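Hi everyone,

Forwarding the result from last night's run.
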Amino acid sequence: MLNVSRLKVLKEVAYRGSLSAAAAALDYSQSAVSQQISALEAETGMKLLERQPRGVTLTAAGQTLMAHTEAILSRIEAAETALSAIAGLRGGRLRAASFPTAGAALMPLAIASFRAQYPDVELTLAEGEPEEIAPRLLAGDLDLALLFEFAGEDLALEGVSVVPLLEDPMYLAMPRAHRLAARGRVRLEDLAEDAWVQTSRSSPCARHVVRCCHAAGFEPRVSFESDDYQTVQGLVAAGVGVALIPELALSAVRDDITIRALSPTPPRRRVIAALPESARLVPAAPAMLGVLQSTAASYQKGGGRPAN
């Protein structure tokens, strides 16, 4: 295999017409240049230079190799430039994913901030529930994912770096005319006789709601299921049940429902950013992580849930 450093020496010798001039340009000794050319001739098995009284000229083999050398060195320079651009976030790509409620509340702000700082990075965003995104993350199809997990239902993310972003409490949603709507705080056990609206029973949020109700001493009577929290709000407004809704899903609250915190401690989920081991090779991934941390901090500082 041809040595790139020796090809660079050959190029200087060919351009300058002498070993001494090439040595001066490269800051080598003349003997070092001569040794590099001799080694290159040994690699090719052919004579590349004709020594003349006043310099050197390329042989036919040297001319042929020189024509390829210019193309090789040009491609290497282009590759180095492209890699430097990626390292400096002047190029490259970032494949991100998020669960829907964070995709509505956090990711738009984070994406806007990231795009403003790194406009040349190609950014894509997929959406799905954590149980859908996590396998793609582990398979290397994603560079960063926004996920959530509940206590007792930690995601199996071996070989993945996990960074906590915020705690997302769940609030009680009930019709305006509900018997408990006038209370400032409500206990979960006070709702044992109510009908419930929740996400599909296999979802992490629904499983956690059921666990919380069991801990409060009752089995929730689920009337309707929907994975769209706006639909959940509509069903609550229609009076068909109460629901527990994460704060991130309450960026917009209907006027005909009441939102209350559960007492003494509301259920909550932990929102995390997850980066696979391969993300260390993607400079844009830690940059987006920093943006997400700043966005999450601003969200929490701003109070998150609208007044109701």
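Residues 60-87 form the longest helix (28 residues).

Cheers,
N.
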